[in-house]
Structures are given as structure tokens and as C-alpha cells.
Amino acid sequence: FDLELPGRKMRVELVGATQPLVGLDCSLLLVRRKHPSARLENHANDVLRAWLDHLVLTASGVVKPRVHRVCLAYRDGVCPVEIAAVSRDEAHAYLKTLLQDLLTADNEVLVPFAAVVEKGLKKSPQEFPSLVSSLMARQRPPCAGPVRRPETFRIPAEGEAAELIARRFEPFFGRLSGGS
Asked: Cα–Cα distance between 85 and 102 in angstroms, integer?
């Protein structure tokens, strides 16, 4: 990706491996815990990995734009989820937006994915700062994924959080269907 950042240009190459694939249109994710529930939002954290694979495979031209199926294999059952097709141009533009955002935006904010799911999929009416605070208070010890000492990061205000969620996650949430 050739990025135009403030005051400089940068080339970013994405390197790595996808989750195991069945063909090129189905991700197989092995999840070591029990099946969470029938609600799609309870699988969002697991499906996010497959979404990123779907974007990279489509943007790179490895696969043609089509529905990407995800098979979540839990200890006690299987959950199929579908991610709607994204065009090669859309996938490339979205990945480029994420990269620019991560390289230029203020990323010293606390935005736990559980709170993003509450706002983005469950459409929680609770203000984002209080939602994050209540989620953090319920977790023992407080945890925000790989973030060490989450209490040292500021929680974005409602408007800032809404913009961030829309920019980074709406394309993902808008393309999900399934869950069982």
C-alpha cells in the first residue's frame, strides 16, 4: 500500500498467514472455548479475524469478490457465519483507511472491542465512556485485550468514539450474517 501521510509518503506491505481456509472462500477457525450463544454479536471477536483474511485475500486478487463463509468450530459445536462480498477496490480502500488511521490517528485511546460490539452491533444507547467504564469494572482483572495498563489510556467521548467505530468497524458489522 502506498500511503500519503502528513508530511511523508510511506509504503506498507502486509505480511503473514491467514486462518486455515477451506477452498478460498471459507475460513475455518478453531475456538477452544464453549459455543457462546446463538447471537451473532457473541461471535464477532472470532469472526473479525476471518474478516481481515477476507479483505486481504480480496484486495490482493487471490480471490474474486464473493461471500466469505466462516466456520467457527467450538468445543461443543459449530457456528456458521457469512461475510457478504466486498469488491477488490472496496477491500483495498478499507485496508488503506485502516493503515492510515493506525499510523496517523491518536491511538492512545481505550476502545475495547467488547464496547465496540455493544455500540456497533447491539446498538447500545449507553454513552461510550460509561459503557467502557462499566465493562472495565466488570472484568477482573481489568483487561482490554493486549493493552497493558488500560487505565492509563483516555476513553474517547461519544462523538469521537462513534466516528472511530464507523470508520474502522461499520464495513465489518454491515456485512455479517448468520450465527447460531
From this structure: 24
